[in-house]
Amino acid sequence: QGGRAQADRVLTAQDWLHKWETGAAAFHKEHGHPLLEKYLDTLLSGRSGLRIFFPLCGKAVDMKRLADLGHSIVGVDISEQALKEFFADQGLPYCEEPVPGIAGAKKLQSTSGNICLYCCSIYDLSSAIVGKFDGVWDRGALVAVNPCDRPRYASLMISLMEKNSSYLLVTVLYDPNKHKGPPFYVPESEVESLFG
């Protein structure tokens, strides 16, 4: 019953773009996420040179941190502003190109090649376009998608995972009757039913 209060909440792409444009992206962390630090070994499990996916990445500084550790980073966000700010904030040169197969989408890739950010709806992506991943850092993604889209989101994520991939998921616990979200409340039971 916890999620009922929020089940019908829908945010449009415009709503999210507005958050970035107005500086209301309070979910952005200027410093690396403490939970990623804490569980980094779990995500990497001693492996190097992994492909790591950041769904709804915004301008997460952790992308640079993991790239500096030798991993290949792919992110997706609908906000071109956020993606460009990431490269500017990190002082990274990048080039921009269209994405074959997705109308209006752009791919922003660091000149060094190890960070590739897609500007489009996450639902436009597929393993045919971005390949598969050894690790996923899902902080603020599952809890941000519209509650009605969670099954679609989870099945997409599962389709992007290699056999031995690790999925780090951050959710938030609170009384969904008191906050309308996002971030939305996703109980553990739902995480289990979504990802099995």
From TrEMBL:
It is found in: Cytoplasm. This is thiopurine S-methyltransferase. Its main location: cytoplasm. GO terms for cellular component: cytoplasm. It catalyses: S-adenosyl-L-methionine + a thiopurine = S-adenosyl-L-homocysteine + a thiopurine S-methylether. InterPro entries: SAM-dependent_MTases_sf (IPR029063), Thiopurine_S-MeTrfase (IPR025835), TPMT (IPR008854). It comes from Asarcornis scutulata. Its EC number is 2.1.1.67. The gene is Tpmt.
